[in-house]
Amino acid sequence: MADFDFAASLQEQISALFHHRVHLVVRSISPSVAICYMPQHVDTKQLHTSILSPLLQLGQTPTIEDLRSSLPIGEIMDIAAIPECAPLIVKGWVYIATPQAGIAANVADLPKRSLTSPENETTILGPMVAFTESIGMNTTLLRTSIPDTELCSEEYKMGNKRNTTIHLMFMADRANPDRVELVRQRIKQLRLNDVTGSSELMHMIQDNDLSVFPQLMLTERIDLASHSLIEGKIIILLDGSPLVIVGPSEFIDFFLSMEDRYLGWGIGTFIRALRMVALILSVFLTPAYVAALTFHYEIIPSSLLVSLIESRSKVPFPPLFETIILEVTMELLREAGARLPTKVGQTMGIVGGIVIGQAAVQAGFTSNILIMLVALAALGSFATPDYLMSSSLRLVRYPMVIFAGIWGSIGIVFVTSLVTMHLIRQTSLGRPYFSPVHPIKESDLAYDEVLLPEPKGLTATGHRVRKYVRSISLRSLWTGKIDE
Amino acid sequence: MSSGTSHKYQFKAYMLLFLVCNVQVGVGIFGFQRYIYKEAGHDAWMSVLLSGIATHLIVWIMVKTLEMHKSLDLYGIQHVLFGKWIGGVLSICMMLYFLTNMTTIVRTYIEAIQSWIFPDFPTWLLSLILLVLMVYGSLGGIRVILQTSFISFFLIIATSLFFNYPIRYVEWSRLLPIYDTTAQHIWVGAIKMGFTITGFEVIFMLYRHVQDKNKVMRYAQASVLFTNILYLFIMIVSIIYFSENQILRTIWGSINLLKIIKYPFLERIEFIAIPFWMLVVLPGIMQLAWNVLRGTVQLFGWNEKLTLYGLAVIVIVASSTLHNRGQVNQLNDFIGIYSVIVSYCYPLLLFALTYVYKWRKREKGSDAH
Amino acid sequence: MRSLLKPMFRVVGVLSVLALLVGCVQSSVLEKLGISVAIGFDVLSEEKFNVTSVLTNPEPGAKKKTKIVSGIAISTKGARINNNQQLAHTLVNGQVRVVVFDDKLAKQGITYIVENLTRDPFFGDMIFLAVSEGPSHELLAGSYEQIPNIGTYLYEMLQQHIQDDWVPSCTVHDYRSAFYSAGQDPVLPMLRKLPNGVEVFGLALLQNDRVVGTIGPGEGYLLKLLLGKLATLKEVKIDRDELRPYLHEHRKADGHVRVVISNLGSKKHIRLLSASPLKFQANLRINVELQEITDEYDFSKPQASKLLQQKIGEALTKETEALIKKLQRLGSDPIGFGEVYRSSVRHSKLTADKWKKMFPEASIQSQVEVNIVRTGTIE
After folding, report:
1. How sure is the predictor about B368, in pLDDT bands with cuts at 50, 70 and 90?
2. Does the beta carbon of A277 lie under 8 angstroms from any beta carbon of chain C?
3. SS3 helix, strand, coil % of chain B, rounded to 5?
4. Average pLDDT, chain A
5. In terms of DSSP H, where are the helices of A166-240?
6. Is the pLDDT reported for residue C3 higher than 60?
7. Helix (H, G, I), strand (E, B), or coil: what is residue A261?
């Protein structure tokens, strides 16, 4: 029984690749044609209609050419040797073989998530679509949002075991070719590393992994990714992760959100300024408290003095320890709230936040002014759109509090200078990370942190505004008429 | 002597606006008022003005000298004008000058902190903190110096905005009658002002690394103008806020001006302003250290990093040996005289010599043809 | 790159741990401090002071909000040592708001104390100085039913008076700047203890640093206006006969009409007319709002308010001239005529002693012009 032998031998050979511990379906079409696929990975309807039925209508000994021309499938690949087909079968391809040669056809229907709204980066006015784990879907979303032909996408594979697909996307007329080359080199260097998730990849290709500050941005929003592409940035997509890596990023990028653009220039700039204030508050508020209460009592205005003394007098610890205890408790609350299942998390949040706080103050364990300050500081750190950056800032607060407790205001300034100089020293894909000095000429600006009103005359609104302004000319004030 | 400028050290001319004034505004701003007032009385602002005008002229001469030498820094110019050996000795003197300047700034700043905020902060510890920061910053290269001097520029502006608060307590008549003292007193006051305004000699070292050298003059003058206006403003506010004998007895005049500020949520701003002034002092000493490093690399070829560490250790040790205010004042006076010579007299000499040198070269060149 | 950093990390780590361990700074934790909010100085004998400190009570839930500590010493800081001996918390001066001197000490001279307080960098510059009638210890240590913290109470009371009323600013800076100025003398408020409170009842005039006389609120008002600051309410006495054309004859037949004016803004102009003989012209222009007039006055005619303005101006001019004569007699120049002299005359080389001789001989004319902006909401 020749055909039985061929299918059986095919099954034997392919499952030997998987140590005989795999679920495969091998079916013989004719004595010299057999197909092999993984049952849950293929679209069975398409398999039946587009592969099985045409194949079943072929003759007894078709050649590979006959096979190929009979299949109404777009993606067909030649397979030289049987081991090559294993990764493809796993990816949902079906392997069609004759004793001489084989081809593989793509009828994949892998489990994937449908499009949802972003979980962690929500906006009120923006589009509600986020990336998913399927790199095909993500690349499609980006390509459809920028239909321009300058958008390039290069594919790489990474990982010994995972063989994950990586797409490198950039606009050829906007992105800096040296930086693209740098990214390519780094990805190639990491070819054998198995990465789980974009964040791990990001940390590997970052310029300086010893720094707590992220130098590349991660986002799950499509509008942010496409906006960055148009600005000239490079996007790295990783199969299996809904986050894409955006680089090169500057320090200020982590504090901008697409929401600001949607709100308009006035409100947007105000919100961005508010975030800066929140940043400063969250980093300096608790260290200032510690320094003022431990060393510099003169700086406290007299109206606050009495209430501060009263609230502190019950506390047995010096301000430094009190603050560290409260900060750690706040971090515990946050971490526990993030790890708990949703059903339990809500209750724990309320219990932790309100009850423990209240009880602690009444027991004389801590002062209520400090609880308010720590809560404000935590709020301030969460105003940062990027999660990694807000975590870094929360981390920076600890040495600042400790040094404030040891050296007072000198300690605060010491840590501030150290962190500032550290940020200045960082680069993101070779581009300076933190440069407060921006080029003065507007044309040098890659993007705007301060949103300006649309230049008049360029938009429909601008046209109307211009006409209106011109109509209220000095002459009309004199004559008492307003021209329409 | 490296002939070309390495690419990584280049920056644009407008950065000079922040770099030059940052070395000028160090710790002198805290207490310069009473020295000038001692000489010129309530016409001290005229001394400041005179000093400022002299500074503009000297900067003009400096930039012209540098333009004639195309793309050399101070060590290069000295090498060209004086030959290898004498030029080398002069360069070593300049490096020692920069080093002493650093020590003075560090020690005076520590003195300010110890007088106002932390009387018992150990000197060695504070200088260790300052120099650890300086070393960390300098290891990052010129970019750190550029950006931190930008930050400190805005810190200076922010602090000077606070000086509008004392204005509601001033007596404008204290400025009158104008020109009540002799021209000689004003002249001596201007020289004393030179101690404080000096610092712009770093243009000699920075010129080489500017990308668009045709804009150097305007930004250097702008930077010096900023410092002049700042000092003039503070001097005038001090004259009208304090009465005659009061200012003579006030050691740290500017800090007394800041002391009275009261906002609903914050008082005694000097407790914040003086520590944060560290961010202003840092880029200044980083630049001075960088100047010394340029010298040691060019003349001796020493390893940059090790020289930097050695510098830091020397400054820490030197500043810790000064124990009291009297010694600090002596050091300030000593370095003050030398700064005036280096900043005002020496550039004139260099300009004259360069002119002669170029004229001779042209003669030789025309003879050769 | 990473391998290079490893030994570096170790060195840096060891050094930083050493630095942190060895480099500790003396801390002053807030609740362990006895924060003094007011200090009083009384002279006991030749060289001894009695120094009273009012502290905010650091014990929580205590009924009394302040704690009074006093001790005897020769120097101000010596007194602090003495006072500290009675406390569980360290006595600190950084939050002192008011310093009170008793009148005997003020007559002897207070510069010595003020200078030594200023020497301390933790002492603020905007601290109020005041003179008390009688020992300051009684004023500060007295128990008042309605005043929880005498230190902050005095501070707020003085602040309110300085902002709106007839007390000129009396901070340490004002005192020192006047003291060190050749042509000006300081002026301080005078406090008096009442059975149930404290009142500011006058201003103490100083010559250099000794008290030589006092003036009341009415004169203080004019003094403050001549200093160029704002003072609001003043009561003026005008003879009835002068206003007769417009008065409705109702109540008193003779005597005086009392008018209360509220100052909306004033401009002072002090000029040196000639250097020798020494002549000054002091002019005041006040814009006022009429707050109260004891008789019914007919405002319907425009000349009525013009007459009233003129009469008020004349009354105020008389008072001003009386004030200035009193100042000259006492030898105290808080208004700063000496400063005007110094700034108008070239190479005057004015010193405090010179001015002390010149001031009583000066002839100073004053003129007050009043402009009634409005009479309230009724006529």
Report:
1. low
2. no
3. 80, 0, 15
4. 82
5. 177-189, 198-205, 222-231
6. no
7. helix
Would you state the pLDDT for residue C251?
A: 58
Which chain C residue lies closest to A300 (C-alpha atoms)?
A: C95
Residue among A408, A413, A435 minimizing CB distance to B276: A413
Q: Residue C345, by phi and psi: left (phi above 0), alpha (psi -120 to 50) or beta? A: beta
**Reduced to 3 states, what is the DSSP secondary structure of residue A256?**
coil
Q: Is A396 helix (H, G, I), strand (E, B) or coil?
A: helix
Under 8 Å between Cβ of C101 and C134: no
Q: What is the per-residue DSSP string for C286-300? A: EEEEEEEESS-B--S
**CA dist., res. C188 & res. C166, Å (int):** 12
Exposure string of A400-412, with b = 16+ CB inside 10 Å and e = fewer, is bbbbbbbbbbbbb
Average pLDDT over residues A223-237: 90
pLDDT at B315: 92
Q: Do C28 and A313 touch (CB under 8 A)?
A: no
Q: Answer yes or no: is pLDDT of C7 > 70.
A: no
Spatial distance between the Cα atoms of B153 and B219, rounded to a whole number of angstroms? 14
- Among B8, B17, B121, B133, the strongest candidate for a mutation testing the A interface, having the largest count of A CBs within 10 A, is B133
ipTM of this predicted structure: 0.91
Provide the pLDDT confidence category of residue C58 given band limits of 50, 70 and 90. low
CATH node for C221-374: 3.30.300.210
pLDDT at B231: 94
Q: Is A296 in contact with B126 (Cβ distance < 8 A)?
A: no
From the list A294, A306, A406, the residue facing C29 with the nearest CB is: A294
pLDDT tens, A355-370? 888 888 888 888 888 8
Q: Count other C-beta atoms under 10 Å from residue A447's C-beta.
A: 14
Chain A CB within 8 Å of residue B279 CB: yes
Determine, for residues C346 and B177 on separate chains, whether the beta-carbon distance falls below 8 Å.
yes
* C284 neighbors C364 (Cβ within 8 angstroms): no
Angstrom distance (rounded) from CA B292 to CA B287? 9
**With contacts defined as CB-CB under 8 Å, which chain C residues touch A298?**
94-95, 122, 124
The answer, yes or no, to whether residue B277 has pLDDT greater than 90, is: yes
Q: Does B177 contact chain A (CB < 8 Å)?
A: no
pTM higher than the cut 0.90: no
Contact C90, C34 (CB under 8 A): yes
pLDDT computed for residue A257 by the predictor: 86
Decide if pLDDT at A466 tops 80.
no
Domain ranges of chain A: 2-106, 135-249, 263-432, 454-484
For residue range C137-194, what is the model confidence (pLDDT) as tens digits? 888 887 777 777 888 889 889 989 988 888 998 999 889 989 988 888 999 999 998 8
- Read off the pLDDT band of B5 (50, 70, 90): very low
Q: Which two tokens stand for residue C36?
A: 């003094």
Question: Which residues on adjacent β-strands are paired with residue C43?
Answer: C49
Q: Searching chain C, which residue's CA lies closest to the CA of residue B245?
A: C180
C95–A310 CB contact, under 8 Å: no
**C285 interface with B at CB cutoff 8 Å:** no
Q: Which two tokens stand for residue A371?
A: 């609880």
Quote the pLDDT of residue C136. Answer: 86
Contact C267, C285 (CB under 8 A): yes
Using CB atoms, list chains with 3+ pairs below 8 Å to chain B.
Answer: A, C
Q: Does domain B7-342 have CATH number 1.10.10.10?
A: no
The H or E element containing residue A51 is: none
Distance from CA of B203 to the nearest CA of C (A): 34
Report domain extents, chain C: 30-215, 221-374
Which of chain A's residues have a Cβ under 8 Å away from the Cβ of C20? 406
User: Which single residue is written with the structure tokens 């009724």?
Assistant: C378
pLDDT at B305 over 50: yes
**CB < 8 Å to C23, chain B:** 122, 125, 128
